[in-house]
Design goal:
Belongs to the small leucine-rich proteoglycan (SLRP) family. SLRP class II subfamily. It contains five helices and 13 strands. It is largely without helices or strands. It has a domain of 121 residues: Ribonuclease Inhibitor (Leucine-rich repeat, LRR (right-handed beta-alpha superhelix)), CATH 3.80.10.10. Strand 12, helix 5 and strand 13 form a beta-alpha-beta unit. The structure holds 2-acetamido-2-deoxy-beta-D-glucopyranose (4 copies). One 2-acetamido-2-deoxy-beta-D-glucopyranose binds next to loops.
Length: 341
């Protein structure tokens, strides 16, 4: 969890220099310096007047948003609806952060997001959404709708979003029918988090630009042959806490030369799936593995043919040191730690 929250925090902090963020802590002083046309209940730091902070104010409706605001924070309120004119004065809004409110799709009126032609970040984590909001503006690069009750993505939701690179949909109720083909047109998508949903199959039509794909905590039981070959840039893949067994994994499923990290922990594997020599972190804890075969890591051994695995977790399996073959270190030459129990 922390790993997932961290990028969000960093993203929030990185947009504002540390100095300004720090100043914001001087509550009362800041209030007096709040720029004159700020909504009375909110805070617009004088040295950062294009940001308006309206966090934790028990708001049920949107405050007045004056012209000039580009970064709008409305976290931890009780906002249930957004009227069609809410952003009429700020059509050049760039960040809209609405985490932890009570928004439902039916109470977000009109095409309000599509009209924000400069919008880059839209965060509506921890709300009561049942489908992906939209239409969305083509300028968007970061969409976060985690911790909702989303079951539906309309086929046109992501159409034409050429700059969308980061999508977080973890902790929703998505099944593969809803997801398949939805992301197809996202030519720049690098990060997709679909963990903690209800997928029983890997989604089809994922964009080949993906670097990071999180599918952990679903109900996926098999990997179609060559599935990951298509994703020719993929570096980080999590499939932990699914229902993967040996029979559902064709021989070279995870032998993908770009992969740096692969998490297959908490599944039902009896054998170690073969991986590429370039893989560095391999998580296999809590499976049913009872045999360590060097050929899962190295088909051939030679001066340059060896596994780059640094961290290998095998605890919670049926392995002990005595079951490790002696040639293991000819193959796993750079392993820093191999955890067995
Ligand atoms: C837009 O600005 C005008 C004038 O400053 C204000 O009266 C109006 O309430 C604002 N609209 C919204 C939706 O904030
Ligand atoms: C939103 O979801 C919470 C938690 O599931 C629920 O208690 C609440 O009644 C919902 N609110 C609305 C307005 O539907
Ligand atoms: C996409 O991003 C590029 C580079 O930041 C920018 O020049 C372009 O206008 C963006 N496209 C849209 C549709 O916003
Ligand atoms: C992975 O695939 C490459 C060819 O793409 C092959 O040379 C290598 O032996 C395979 N590795 C394993 C461990 O099967």
């Amino acid at each position: 969890m922390y790993l997932n929250v961290l990028p969000l925090l960093l993203a929030l902090i990185s947009g504002i220099s540390c100095h300004e963020y720090y100043d914001f802590d001087y509550g009362f002083a800041m209030y007096q310096m709040s720029s004159p046309n700020c909504a009375p209940e909110c805070n617009c730091p004088a040295n950062y007047p294009s940001a308006m902070y309206c966090d934790e104010l028990k708001l049920k409706t949107m405050p007045i948003i004056p012209p000039g605001i580009k970064y709008l924070y409305l976290r931890n309120n009780m906002i249930e609806s957004i009227e069609e004119k809410a952003f009429e004065n700020v059509t050049d809004l760039q960040w809209l952060i609405l985490d932890n409110n009570r928004l439902e799709n039916s109470k977000i009126k009109g095409k309000i997001f599509a009209k924000l032609k400069q919008l880059k970040k839209l965060h509506i984590n921890y709300n009561n959404l049942t489908e992906v909001v939209g239409p969305l503006p083509k300028s968007l690069d970061d969409l976060q709708l985690a911790y909702n009750k989303i079951t539906k993505i309309s086929p046109s939701s992501f159409e034409g979003l050429i700059n969308l690179t980061f999508v977080n949909l973890q902790h929703n109720q998505l099944k593969e029918d809803a997801v398949s083909a939805a992301f197809k047109s996202l030519k720049k998508l690098e990060y997709l988090d679909l963990s903690y949903n209800q997928l029983t199959k890997l989604p089809s039509g994922l964009p080949i630009s993906l670097l990071t794909l999180y599918l952990d905590n679903n109900k996926i039981s098999n990997v179609p042959d060559e599935y990951f070959k298509r994703l020719s840039a993929l570096q980080y893949l999590r499939l932990s806490h699914n229902q993967l067994a040996d029979s559902g994994i064709p021989g070279n499923s995870f032998n993908v030369s770009t992969l740096i990290e692969l998490d297959l922990s908490y599944n039902k594997l009896k054998k170690i799936p073969a991986v590429n020599e370039n893989l560095e972190n391999y998580y296999l804890e809590v499976n049913e593995i009872d045999k360590f075969e060097v050929k899962s890591f190295c088909r051939v051994l030679g001066p340059l043919s060896y596994s780059r695995v640094k961290h290998l977790r095998l605890d919670g399996n049926l392995l002990s040191h005595s079951k490790l073959p002696s040639e293991i270190y000819d193959c796993l030459r750079v392993a820093n730690d191999i955890t067995l129990e």
